[in-house]
Design brief:
This protein has 775 residues and is α+β, with helices and mostly antiparallel strands. Helix content is 61%, strand content 8%. The protein contains 34 helices and 13 strands. A six-stranded antiparallel β-sheet has the order 1-2-3-4-6-5, covered by helices on one side. Helix 5 packs antiparallel against helix 8, helix 14 packs across helix 17 and helix 24 packs antiparallel against helix 25.
Length: 775
């Protein structure tokens, strides 16, 4: 051996150490050592002090040195491959770095994604002649460059940079779906090899969330700044322990900024740590569009939204960021620029003054003194208008259309129709005959449901006309036609016109499936809407089939915890509940809720909607404490995020109030039901059906708590309101009147109460027949 080493003592010592390694591996030198030695000489130079081997791995060179570990390039003999070996510094062997190092290995073992460097082995091994140290071997990205360096070296056009960035988002999203927040995303931790594929590396300070998340480093994390300042989110600088997935969104925004502009958002090279933190928290970077003209507009908005100082203003998750980048690549409107709809509508109006005037004037419907404006007729008459050929402007118009239709109220139209007709009758008689005519008119219309008349008028005069106009004018534009039909279906379903809603939703789905493909996000949205509508009609098996397909396709193409996938699972749970399968509904809603909390956040509207439904299931199953907990959380979060008087508070207030009545906790229920009633009075008026239901609920509370006089006063108002809005012989009016008579009997007016109940029963028999279940 001395002769073979040509008198080189250092080489001879190294060969002796390598031969000693054969005792630890039977196949360590099955590949010819001379050939391997020649490859080593062609590789990176060896650093001073680098070991010859780490366990069974032959060290080739040093890839990088960090504060916690050194990464070596090495060769594994069986199977034969080149790997990266990360070895903990021996000086940290008695610190919490050992726990963090093990956590990184465990984290990598959980992740299986083509965009994340895979782990092969973890353990403890001697470093040549040194004492053993923790290590793990992982996938090597050969000749790798950081994502920004690769883009500059190969002069990638902007489109290719964005496509590569979207693939990085997919990899990070995979981690988030498994409860792993990276916390140190930066260009140096996204490597690109000669094949052009990006790999996310270095999960050394990653945090795991969920019930199985380790807490070994939580305390130390809260006491020190962890990560790379140039890519840190503001909240990570201030409170490293209080971050969520949106911190990774911010860091990805930093990567995108540098990838697009060629510079970092902030120059922190000469700043002290406190000064750097102040800049990150307070100072807005120069807009990307001001640095690179190609980034102006939608791309600039995407970067700004990802890097918003307030995390509530950022994308809710990495999936949403990736989706917006792909919308930009597909020349579609991006969410980052549609957040401020009113501002964009004003700009649209300035550019298209004639069209805006048409939107306000062309389609006007007069039903009982109510004027309803809709943009469907405008879209039909202006189908060839140049502005509507631009996708972004179309999004504004259709959003405006939806906001107009959202205010359609069949009850209000019916009520105004009734009042208008009554006034017209009164005016047609002399003054002394008007009262008699009004009484006769009241008797004549006693059995007429004016809400149904208003709904029929809306359907025939607005909605069906709009459906025909869309089908005719946009027959050659399937994308626009599908979008308008999808929105129309939602409006019809909300109004209870579910058969017509199903037809519109089915056509929208088929158009998107044929035009965009079965796995496109918009196609899956339409499939979920169709399934939900079919479920409300009562065809549960068919609905579950449609919604199962929507969920499975969304999970496969968008990811298990994409917002669209979670929404599809929510809809599928609802169909199971309607069919009576409470266990399956609960399983899905609980799973959806857990994911929504992690990915969307506790305050997101979808999360709170699911939480409210979970509360309903708890109540149905007599788990009252769990139901109360759910509804109280919904109320607290909606108060904080939406304000004290938001309509979304009404349902959980009523639900919790009625639950507390059942539990006999009347003092706690009272302020909740009073607030619910006040909300409806303020928003809908004193005689709206929803307001009248809230009155009846509060009257029921007074009755149960023994305050009969207060119950009688409120129920009297409820009955009078139902007589006015629904008619004196509507079944809801009759039911409310029976309760009122019962209350008056409890107040001592027994004979009058009994006589009134007998009269109401006779009316009920005459209106609905002898076999009515109403009494």
């Amino acid at each position: 051996m001395r002769d073979a080493c040509a008198g080189d003592p250092a080489l001879q010592a190294r060969v002796e150490r390598l031969l000693a390694a054969t005792k630890r591996s039977e196949g360590f030198l099955e590949t010819p050592a001379i050939a391997e030695r020649s490859r080593i000489r062609a590789g990176a130079p060896r650093a001073a002090g680098a070991p010859d081997a780490v366990g069974d791995y032959l060290v080739v060179g040093v890839l990088g040195v960090g504060g916690m570990a050194t990464v070596y390039e090495a060769v594994q003999e069986n199977p034969h491959r080149r790997v990266a070996i990360k070895v903990l510094h021996q000086t940290l062997g008695h610190t919490d770095a050992v726990l963090r190092f093990r956590l990184e290995a465990e984290t990598l073992a959980r992740l299986r994604h083509p965009g994340i460097a895979q782990i092969y082995e973890a353990g403890v091994a001697p470093l040549g002649d040194s004492k053993p140290s923790p290590f793990f071997a992982m996938e090597l990205v050969p000749n790798a460059l950081s994502i920004t360096a690769y883009a500059e070296k190969h002069a990638l056009p902007l489109r290719e940079r964005l496509e590569m960035f979207a693939s990085v988002c997919d990899a990070v999203l995979h981690g988030h779906q498994l409860g792993v927040i990276h916390r140190d995303l930066k260009p140096a931790n996204v490597l690109v090899g000669p094949d052009g594929r990006a790999k996310v590396i270095d999960f050394g300070i990653a945090r795991r969330s969920g019930p199985d998340a380790p807490a070994v480093t939580a305390e130390s994390d809260s006491r020190r700044l962890i990560g790379t300042l140039n890519a840190m989110s503001p909240e990570q600088c201030v409170d490293p322990s209080g971050i969520d997935v949106r911190s990774d969104v911010y860091s990805l925004g930093v990567i995108l900024y540098e990838l697009v502009t060629g510079r970092r958002p902030h120059d922190l090279s000469r700043c002290s740590i406190p000064e750097a933190v102040r800049i990150i928290v307070e100072q807005e970077p120069e807009r990307a569009g001001a640095i690179r003209a190609e980034a102006a507009g939608s791309l600039d908005a995407i970067i700004a939204m990802a890097m918003a100082k307030e995390r509530d203003l950022r994308y809710v998750g990495v999936g949403a960021l990736a989706a917006d980048v792909r919308r930009l690549l597909a020349d579609r409107p991006v969410e980052a620029r549609t957040a401020s709809f009113l501002e964009q509508a004003r700009l649209f109006a300035r550019r298209n003054r004639a069209l805006t005037i048409s939107i306000s004037a062309i389609v006007v419907l007069f039903v009982g003194g109510v004027i309803v404006s809709t943009t469907f007729g405008v879209l039909a008459s202006q189908a060839r208008d140049e502005a509507l050929q631009r996708e972004h402007d179309l999004e504004i118009v259709t959003a405006f259309q939806e906001s107009m239709l959202a205010d359609l109220d069949a009850w209000s139209m019916g009520d105004r129709l009734k009042s208008s007709l009554a006034s017209a009758v009164a005016r047609s008689f002399e003054q002394d005959e008007a009262a008699q005519a009004a009484e006769q008119w009241s008797q004549l219309t006693a059995g007429v449901n004016f809400t149904n008349l208003g709904l029929q008028s809306l359907n025939e005069s607005v909605l069906q006309r709009s459906r025909r106009s869309i089908d005719e004018r946009f027959a050659e534009q399937p994308a626009i036609r599908a979008r308008l039909l999808h929105r129309l279906a939602a409006t019809m379903s909300a109004l209870g016109l579910r058969a017509d809603a199903e037809k519109a939703a089915r056509t929208a789905y088929e158009l998107r499936r044929d035009h965009l493909g079965p796995d496109h996000e918009e196609t899956l949205l339409s499939l979920g809407t169709l399934g939900s509508i079919v479920s409300t009609i009562g065809r549960y098996d068919e609905a579950i089939g449609l919604l199962t397909e929507a969920h499975e396709r969304s999970e496969r193409t968008l990811g298990a915890e994409h917002a669209a996938t979670l929404r599809a699972d929510f809809q599928l749970a609802g169909a199971h509940r309607r069919r009576g399968d409470q266990e399956e509904a609960e399983r899905r809603w609980m799973r959806t809720l857990e994911s929504q909390r992690r990915v969307l956040g506790d305050d997101h509207a979808d999360t709170l909607r699911t939480l409210s439904n979970v509360g309903l299931l708890h109540a149905i199953k007599w788990r009252f404490a769990d139901a109360e907990r759910c509804w109280r959380e919904v109320i607290e979060r909606r108060r904080r995020t939406l304000g004290e008087n938001h309509p979304e508070l009404k349902a959980p207030l009523s639900n919790l109030g009625m639950l507390l009545i059942d539990l006999g906790r009347f003092d706690e229920a009272k302020p909740l039901l009073e607030e619910a009633l006040a909300s409806d009075r303020r928003r809908l008026g004193d005689t709206h059906p929803s307001t009248l239901v809230a009155m009846a609920q509060l009257a029921s509370l007074h009755r149960e708590s023994g305050n009969i006089a207060a119950a009688e006063l409120l129920q009297s108002e409820c009955v009078e309101g139902r007589r006015v809005s629904l008619g004196p012989e509507h079944h809801d009016t009759l039911r409310a009147a029976v309760f009122l008579a019962t209350l008056r009997g409890l107040l001592g007016h027994r004979e009058q109460a009994e006589a009134e109940i007998r009269r109401l029963m006779e009316v009920q028999r005459r209106v609905v027949g002898e076999r009515s279940p109403e009494f």
